[in-house]
Fold this sequence. Notes:
Elements: H1 2-11, H2 26-40, H3 44-51, H4 55-62, H5 71-80, H6 87-93, H7 99-143
Helix pairs in contact: 2-6, 3-5
Amino acid sequence: MADREGERERSGAVYTARGQVDGEDWPAVAAALNERMAARRIGQQELARLSGVSVSTLRMLQHGASRRVQNKTLEAICRALDWPADHLIGILVTPQPHPASASVADVAVMAVLERIEDHVRQLTDRLTGIEKDFRAVISGQEQQPER
């Protein structure tokens, strides 16, 4: 076994099986997979047929489980969904922002946007009133006889 591993290292071959590893974000892979499937309106059966991956493996990935999935399995799914072959692997190993900090920022941004929308509504109402008054003045001048 040690000889085979040494041979693999010398040949440059990469071990491609994936199991749970610290820092990997399987829930992010599940979210990306589910979003893409929904956007493409493709079900598990169809994706299994297109990718050559079993329905049970797809189901496991869709739920964020991380039992030994090979890179080639993730790559086959990517190709079937018209993604670059390494897309899901990139999601898996790329640190995602902490959800709590993102949601606090989102709430703050939404509050500012709501205030801006309120101000825009108020300005629109004021402009509409000015426009009505202006039209009334113009139409009143047109109706008055000249002296």
